[in-house]
Amino acid sequence: MALPDYYPSLSEDGWVNEPIKIADWIMSDFFSSDYSQTHSHPGQVASFAYILQKYQININDIMNKLTQALTIYFSRYFDNVLVEVEDVETDPTIPTRTLAIYIAFTDKKGRRYNLGKQATFEGSKLMTVINVLKGEV
Predict the structure, then answer these.
(1) What separation in angstroms does the CA of 84 have from each of 55, 73, 90, 93, 109?
(2) Do 97 and 90 contact (CB within 8 A), yes or no?
(3) Across the 137 residues of the chain, what is the mean pLDDT of every consecutive 10-residue run?
């Protein structure tokens, strides 16, 4: 199946066709989507909040499901998708958790991209999302 050339955003950007912007929109939609927001495509909406809610007892299940969902979602638009999710050490006295999400992918022209996000949450509530770079400091 051929990869689409555009990503539909519900913003002034309209149909997005730049790979890094598409990736950013995919992540934005993933963080803001509700799993049950569709009747025509049940089970096909990738949702960070749904994964947190369903698997909040087990951080390993959360990381595995995030990896699986983002790999499927990004593979709809890009080739050679590689997703890594890491549990970031935080202060154990604070009830929040932080996950680092790294995604590498190739566009139709063979160019390789890397995207990193760090998401902090409490229970099933997303608190913050920031951009991060993966690499040695």
Answers:
(1) 18, 14, 18, 26, 23
(2) yes
(3) 74 85 88 63 71 87 94 93 90 84 93 90 82 59
Around 116, how many Cα atoms within 13 Å sit in the side-chain half-sphere?
A: 9
Q: How far, in Å, CA of 75 to CA of 85, rounded?
A: 16
At a CB cut-off of 8 Å and minimum separation 6, what does 130 contact? 117, 118
Please give the backbone phi and psi of residue 82, each rounded to the nearest 5 degrees, phi first. -130, 120
pTM: 0.83
Backbone dihedral angles phi then psi of residue 45, each to the nearest 5 degrees: -95, 120
CA distance 98 to 89: 7
Give the whole-angstrom CA distance, residue 3 versus residue 107: 9
